Amino acid sequence: MKFFKNIMAAMALLATVASCDMGDFGDINTNPNYPSEGSTGGLFVRASEYVRYFVFNNYYYDIWTQQYPGYLSESKNNQYGPLDCTTSFSIDTYYIYPIKNLNEIIERNEDDATKNETSVTSFGSNANQIAVAKTLRAFFYMSLTDIVGPIPYSEAFKGDSDDNWTPKLDSGQDVYTALDTELNEAFAMFDESGSLTDDDILYGGDITKWKKFNASLRMMMAIKMKDADAATGKSRFAKAYADGGMTSADDSFTYQYDSYSGSYANYSPMYCCAYGIGSGNQNHVPNKIIVDALKKYNDPRLFTYCDVSETAYKGKAGAYGADDQRSYRGVPFGLSSNDEVNKQSKYCCSVGSKYCDQMATYGVITAARTLLVEAEAAQLGWISASAKTLYEQGIKASFEFEASTDNSWSYDLNAYMAQSEVAFNESDSEAAMKQILTQRWLAGYLTDGVEAWADWRINNVPELPMYSGQLDNDHTTYPYRMAYDGDDMTANSEQFQKAIDTYYAGNNDRWARIWWDTKDNTSPVGELESDDEIAAYSPVTWTQIGTGTMNYILDPVDYVFGTVTGDAYEGVNKVSVSGLPIYQQNEDPTIFKIEKWGRNGDVTLQFTVADNGTITVPVTSCDSYGSYTFSCSDYATCLNYGWEYASSYMSYYSDDLAAGPSCVREGDTFKFYLSYVLDNYYAPYYMLYDPDVVETFVIDNK
User: Fold this and answer.
1) What does the alpha-carbon distance between residue 58 and residue 369 come to, in Å, rounded to a whole number?
2) Into how many domains does the chain fold?
3) What is the CATH classification number for the domain harbouring 18?
4) In this structure, is residue 322 part of a structural domain?
5) What is the pLDDT of residues 339-397, one digit of tens each?
6) Are 160 and 8 in contact (CB under 8 A)?
7) Is there a contact between 653 and 638 (Cβ–Cβ < 8 Å)?
8) CA-CA distance, 185 to 181, in Å (whole number)?
9) Does 200 fall in a domain?
């Protein structure tokens, strides 16, 4: 296949995307909802679709973009872990489609004969189209050279003009220099008074965000130069920093997948994995190293990155429940046999449900990455800024971005930041730098894997462990680059071989170095969990021991404020519901749960009964319970603001909660006493409870 000749000759292809082998970036079919062929907006849509492949290079096969940074592992076999599955990377598709399309946009906006045509101007101003196209093109070129090294750049697309069908491969360093120049030129062209149409599927036409992305790209390239050419990197970084990169989560460069039914390749890759779409087979799961790191730092991102709920495609909640990090287990990557993979993946967690939505939005380059790159530069002394402030802003941006894609996730940022291992270490510069790099890795989960891999190659953070399947293949660390693809080399063999001889000592090897990668990485030998340790993650099981009748208080607010009192309380404020199932946990018989609890019948109440009959209700059972709180044990700390009068009359303060009657089991009757905190603006806060204010559950059918 003479791909490079096709690159130069195929300018008339415009936005049409042909089918490709799935090992070569997927089957991208034509979506009839997209703009017509020939418009620059349509060209831009097609080019933008390729951004996603730096997050997930594939939909089901060897997702090395997330495996090499330590984010994903495999749960069904040891096909990918030994690191000898995908060994090369083809760059031709990017030249034929996205880069060609972006070149076409630039040319048609610069050419006097075409720049005023409706098919051009309908997308936006000439200047903004050129600036955005050059910025996105630079992102593609940067990513390609970071993967393989030298690539065609200065002589690319010179077939028609110069009759050069075999372009030379420029060094990665020269490509970086050219890209920095081009990005600066593009930055100067942006006109924030204008915008692009919604054919800009990446930023919705927002030129201000494109400017921030442009400056962020320049900083990302410059920081990688710290070991190879620090002086130049520092100079370029300072200019880009002054121009202003991403500052908040909504500046992030993202990609939202499509629901178009013409091809599963338009769907979120984890949707395909979780639900067996196309060739998805539920194989990809979180890596042990990222799960263990999140648990080590008591990081609440664990609960949005991963999933152990009843709807998860792999492991369900263990004995500790889905809101306890002890229920989460990752899988080591690189084991020696299918049996070992199956053993170590038992009870493993799934990738978070938000990633498994058909139209999921994934971060590509997030504001968190940009801010933490700036924190690194500040720590290096490259810019006059507080590394501590930028570090904290980076973590905050990461949390806010994750919350923007998961409405059900909550977190306490201040508590997280106050932990000793997370709080910025201003007294130890080496420790502070490791904190910055660690947080950048933690924030990079399922974003641009090429960038995260570049961080590891340069900084060796984290230290990725090696397991038996990798060591048996004589691999002592992860690859430092991808080898050139054989078809690419066949099309331009002389120039590729010249680059291999010049920059890689004649060996197209994955452990050769990209120019900015100057130091050997170290990888410890990974440790495996024992059978007993694995068994601790076992999901809990339940046995129904009967059904019963729940006697509810219909409206405790009326009782508290005296609307219903005395005998009237007994007659008016209670209602009974029968047939509610009660279960006992098999693993711990002291734990019970009652389903269909609550006024709407949509709550499961779980509680523990001690030997003396005292009932303890976990705080987590508070969710959606109702308009009051129990006074039993630790459940008294549950804060509930569901009352009609909460804003003006009623408040809950855990420090003021008095010890009311204990909830207790008496044979087949479970008693749950209620209590209230009253604030009428004239009296102190106090507990109001009454032995008669009790809800009971009675087992009447065993």
Assistant:
1) 23
2) 2
3) 1.25.40
4) no
5) 999 999 999 999 999 999 999 999 999 999 999 999 999 999 999 999 999 999 999 99
6) yes
7) no
8) 6
9) yes
